Amino acid sequence: MLDFVQQVIGGIALGCVYGLIALGFVLIYKATEVVNFAQGEIMMLGAFLSFTFIATLGLNYWFAFLLCVISMAILGAVMERLVVRPILGYPQFSIVMATIGLGLVIRSLVGIIWGTDDLRIETPFTGGVVRVGSLVLAQDSLSIIVATGLLCVILYAFFRFTRVGIAMQATSQNMLAAYYMGIPVKRMFSLIWSLSAIVACCAGILLAPITFIHANLGFLGIKAFPAAVLGGFGSIPGALAGGITIGIVESLSGFYLPEGFKDVAAYVVLLAVLLWRPQGLFGSNALKKV
Amino acid sequence: MSAHVKTSYQQSEQLFPSRAAAFWYAILTAVMIAAPFVIEPYYLSQLVFVLIYAIVGIAMNILSGQAGQVSIGHAAFLAIGAYTAAISAKYGIPLPVYLVLAGAFTGLIGYLVGLPALRLHGIYLAIATLAFAFIVEEVITRWEHVTNGNEGLMLPPPALFGLKLGPYGFFYLCLGVTVLVILAAINIIRSPTGRAFLAIRDSETAARSMGIDTARYKTTAFAISAAITGTAGVLYAHKLSYISPEMFSLSVSIDFVMIIIIGGMLSLRGAVFGAIFMIMVDPMLIVVKDKVPQMTEAAMQAIHLAEPVARTIQAGVVRVVGAPGLKSLIFGLIIILFIIFEPMGLDGRWSRVKAYFRQFPLYRPTSARAQRMFLKSERNR
Fold this sequence. Notes:
The complex is a heterodimer of chains A (about 290) and B (about 375).
Chain A: H1 2-32, H2 39-56, H3 61-84, H4 92-114, E1 129-132, E2 135-138, H5 139-161, H6 163-173, H7 175-180, H8 185-207, H9 220-230, H10 236-256, H11 261-276
Helix pairs in contact in A: 1-5, 1-6, 1-8, 1-9, 1-10, 2-3, 2-4, 2-8, 2-9, 3-8, 5-6, 5-8, 6-8, 9-10, 9-11, 10-11
Chain B: H1 9-13, H2 19-38, H3 41-66, H4 74-90, H5 95-117, H6 123-142, H7 144-147, E1 153-154, E2 159-160, E3 163-164, H8 167-190, H9 192-202, H10 204-209, H11 214-240, E4 242-243, H12 250-263, H13 268-302, H14 307-322, H15 326-341, H16 345-358, H17 376-379
Antiparallel strand pairs in B: 1-4, 2-3
């Protein structure tokens, strides 16, 4: 039983990372109907930046965190401007491919700049544990769960109470109508990309202490797809719930099932859910005009 | 784009658009048949890869270009075809039999993968095919007593009716299969099935209201595309004579999508152009790795750059050129640049060049501009 709870909590921590990456997908998808396949690579870039700021430059963790977030916000907007803006309005598949290309470029640039060795950062939580009864929980994992919760509250407040957040919602509901109402739609797109780069960056920095920082970290992004799809690809709480589900499933199947199931468990769950509810667990299915 | 106005129904039924086209294709076939006697073995080997990639490109074109369904998991079908070949060859089944068998078996799997496609579209479908590809890769890795796991399988040299095929014979086999696949694809496209594919691509709802059984045709498209890819898998396995699971990873699926993006999705010709381009990248890369550092060094000497600056730049160049990720960097850039600047692909450029000369003083670039759609109702068809 204790093993089970331990596995579930480990799964939730990993799932929160998936959830955060999925959140990045969902933010961009909701506003621009683009699925950003480079989300995992953006997360990786955030993790590598944090390595430079924390390990190489020796900055304070929290200050470095802030610097990372700011630089990723700028990079996110730059990526949108260079890659996505020129092909706005093209078929969805072309845009998806362009983001796959972007992901390839980021991954190989990271490999060229930081090399292909495994890197590590020290955080204030490294090595710390919290004991609850006979449960032993790593502070790293707990920090992910807490930070994810915090980030969700901030995002919720942002979309609910700020002018920009509401403008973003309007853009995602109807681009043309938003444009007629005087919302600078293009700038909203840049902002959305910044925002999702920030979310990805947070995921990367939180994940860095529990896995190594290496050039294949971006493949976690692909694992986050099942999370986003489970959540219905349009729903922010759905993305998190999907991420946590995938995290728990993966962690339990790694523990109880034979080797090999862990890697594909997420995809099996995904296919099963898609067959049962094609619009995802939380998605809504709207008919479209011809 | 090019003003090719059809004036009778017969024109839609013809195999070749015009007599001239038939003539030029005959010349091309003759050149291809003569090729082994003219070019060096290395280029012949590259040509075989082009043919195999062209077959996969056609499969992708039927699925994405014609029927409008997305797949980023086609490497899985290639793997299924390749493993069917390797396992059949182990049990002494002759090549013609397992060439057909692999096609049929992969087609069946493709049909099954197509079933979720009935309810999914766009991005969900792309992700479902991605998931399928991962599962297939994992199954091949783990099912060791059949697939030999990560150690992979060796294939005997290809033999046809007891005769061992050398590089020439294998080239002709690939050429023959490619021609058959292209003819089959043209015939599918001009049949009612192909028309139904086009209707589904342009608007699924409209197609359904016109009485097209979208479910049936979507699964058909998947089955046909998978069967063709499986056939290519047999040739691929024989070409490499050794297969292992990591040869069918996600990056291979992305390569396949690149074929049709670079070549252009609108015609089968695009698939062949894309295949040629993709195969040419590797030899070009070797040249780049070889020549670029020398060229930058010479260039900096020519403009008398200060020594320390020059050395830093040179070190940077060597680092980028020698990086293991250089290929994916270039592939990524190619994808992005093609989509931004050449959304119709090489085939679109080809048609535009032709149109330019045909309509000489009247041609305007804007007449071939890619359409953009900003309304949700327009985009989600």
